[in-house]
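Troubleshooting: if your tokenizer reports a length mismatch, compare your output against this known-good record of 124 residues.
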Amino acid sequence: MIAELIVCATLTAVDGDTVKCNGQNMRLLGEGVPFVSGIDTPEIGSHAKCLKERKLALIAKGRLKELLAEEGLRVVFSGAVDKTQTHRPLVNIYRTNGEEIGRTMLKEGFAREWNPKRRNDWCD
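Known-good structure output:
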């Protein structure tokens, strides 16, 4: 798989780890390896398992929205799509300082490490 730069006329936060680029949902990798590692944020709305998760999801989405408002972001397609019905492209978004946005979300506590063998519990 070869990474490629994606040009987004519009880039918005759907939730804490999903963005919409030109109308298409894309999943943040956080510099992870497709299907091996990545980032995870709480589920929003009816997908949340508890009220605490819903609240954390809104906070994570708000932080991602702030990060996406920065100038000069680079969206890089990993070459892979997720295994959901919508086959979201797996992407990394880099800030002008070189930091990847998913890594920023992890560092600031809005996201957790994701791996396919363990599901994060946001209600504990």
